[in-house]
Each structure stands twice: as structure tokens, then as C-alpha cells.
Amino acid sequence: MTRLTLPLIAAAGLALSACASLAPYGAQMGPGGQGYAEQRIESNRFRVTYNGVGAPGPVMDMALLRAAELTTAEGHDWFEVTQRWTDGRLDSAGGMRPSVGIGYGAGRSSGRYGRYSASGVGVGVGLNFSGPSQTSTTLEVVLGDGPRPDRPNVFDARAVQDSLRR
Fold this sequence. Notes:
43% strand; single chain; 5-stranded antiparallel sheet; alpha+beta
């Protein structure tokens, strides 16, 4: 293996992993696509889902942004997250992840020229060049009016929009 082979493989893997990234914020355009979707459960209760690619944090932010937009569009002031689900790997941002493997083998044989035994130990280093994986966040939210209640999962809809649109 030449000196340039490993750097070329690494560069190709990183280039491929850069192809999959979080799409611009918007509605989900089809099954398996990125974006938001919502479902009304009751008059003031919704389930908001954001499907994206990459780290869970930015995908969660997009779900919160959609919940805030939905709140103001419905004429309310605040929303409370009553349930939250996140699907995806913790390392879903992707990239190069090294792995190490160690193996041992032994064998014996007897044949025409006598008996033989052999053993060996191997150490291998592998690189995983997988790109970002799909991540999904679903929030169940209740919309409300008036002063925002002082609970940790209650958000001012306009403040969330101002903060997350920057």
C-alpha cells in the first residue's frame, strides 16, 4: 500500500459523509424525507415530528421551532411539551469511527510428511466512513394562552421562534 492510499480513502469517505446533512427547514415532502409533519390530537394538542439527518440536537431544535410556529398559527401564546421521543444513534452525526479487532487461531494437521501445528495472532484496524444517519424527534405539545406557566417544559412560542431562527 502506498503512502497516499490511506489518505485518499479517508478523503473519499469524508466527502461521501458530507453528502448527507440536515436539509433546509421545511415540511416533509414524502415518506422517508426530511422535514416536519404534525397531527392534531385534540383542539389544543398536537404531535409534531421532525425527521432529519445528523446529530439529535439540531433535529430537536427544528421540532421545537415547528411547535412554536404551530402555536402562533393557532392563535396561542405558549406550548408545553408533554411527551418527547427521539430516534437515532447518539453518534448519528457520522464521520470516521475507528475500530480495533484482535483474533487468534490455531490448527493441527498430520499428513504424509508428519504432524504440523500452527498458531497465529492478528491485530486489525478498521475505519468506518459512514455518513450521518437519520434522526427523528417527535413532540406531543399542548397549546395555551395568557401568561406562560412556570414549568420546565413550557415554552414561549415567540421567544422560541426568535431564538431558533437566528
